[in-house]
Design a protein that fits this description.
seven-stranded mixed β-sheet, four-stranded antiparallel β-sheet, 313 residues, globular, 9 helices, alpha/beta
Length: 313
């Protein structure tokens, strides 16, 4: 389902249930079952036959949810965290710099929670293939189960393997390699062997600490990689609100315009502003934006390099 789209919810489908931007979850539609949340209960049988994106009201009438089609972007927000995961700013940047597109062959280590794996699979579908490796057996088995349930098994091969000790077991195969390892410099040689030699090979190393970047850069240079560059993605979200726009007459008259913030949740986020004028006259409004108070900080450093094709005599 993650690399294809359908319009109608069917029995057995995996659905993303959207309550608020901060509250999303997944469920498998099964007739006879009931989904419960703070808004009330929702019968699965009422969902079957609805279009994806439909709004469905609870039986208590206290609220509603949206039924969304699963995508890699949504999965990143609801995935069970078995490890630290990659988020959309890093995922988008890496996919661009590794030149991922349909038909590409990609090697990934380690799989972790499978957040990036789902995005890679969707990007290289339908004719590409992802080989992903995870040294932790329980995590590998959990990811394999998810790939099967999400209809990705035909384009994702997952293997329980310590690539630092045993390599990838594949040579001259991949268009790109992604390393999310504690010591990526120890896997650079294996990555070089796995990359195709008839075209430009690309590699990305995901490292939280700058000391890891330094050692990885030295290893990449030692093994003949070129154009070594490091980036850090820092995304900033903006919120918007409507604000009154007093004209010159209001200003001259001395009428006071005040703002009353409307708080909608425990975090006291400003959802909108109401303009209040002494004589209750309505003023024209304008949309203002500002950065949110809480900004996601450092996630990791992204080190990229290319391997030039091997010349044949």
């Amino acid at each position: 389902m993650f690399h294809e789209y359908k319009n109608i919810v069917e029995n057995g489908d995996l659905v993303v249930v959207y309550s608020t931007p901060e509250t999303m979850t997944t469920m498998t539609v099964s007739e006879g079952q009931i989904f419960n949340n703070r808004f009330g209960s929702f019968r699965h049988s009422d969902m079957v036959g609805l279009k994806y994106g439909s709004k469905i009201q609870s039986h208590t009438g206290r609220g509603f949810v949206y039924l969304l089609h699963p995508t890699p972007a949504l999965w990143t927000q609801v995935v069970p965290h078995r490890t630290q995961i990659l988020y959309l700013p890093d995922i988008s940047f890496i996919s661009l710099y590794l030149n991922l597109m349909p038909g590409k062959i990609v090697i990934e280590s380690g799989t972790g929670s499978g957040s990036f794996s789902h995005s890679i699979a969707r990007t290289i579908a339908p004719s590409g293939h992802l080989y992903t490796f995870e040294y932790h057996e329980l995590r590998a088995n959990a990811a394999r189960k998810e790939f099967d349930e999400h209809s990705l098994a035909n384009m994702v091969t997952i293997e329980h393997r310590d690539v630092i000790a045993n390599g990838f077991g594949r040579t001259n195969l991949a268009d790109a390699v992604f390393l999310d390892l504690p010591a990526p410099w120890d896997a650079v040689e294996a990555a070089k062997q796995a990359l195709r030699k008839d075209t430009i090979g690309r590699i990305c190393c995901f490292s939280p600490c700058i000391e890891q970047v330094q050692r990885t850069t030295l290893a990449l240079n030692e093994h003949g990689f070129a154009e070594i560059r490091m980036f850090e993605c820092l995304a900033k979200d903006y919120e918007f609100r409507n604000a009154p726009l007093p004209d010159i007459d209001v200003a001259i008259s001395g009428k006071k315009v005040s703002f009353k913030s409307v708080k909608s949740d425990k975090k006291r986020k400003r959802d909108e502003d109401a303009a209040v004028v002494d004589d209750k006259d309505e003023l024209p409004t304008m949309i203002l934006t500002k950065p949110v108070d809480e900004v996601r900080g450092h996630t990791s450093y992204l080190t990229f390099a290319i391997l030039a094709p091997k010349e044949h005599d």
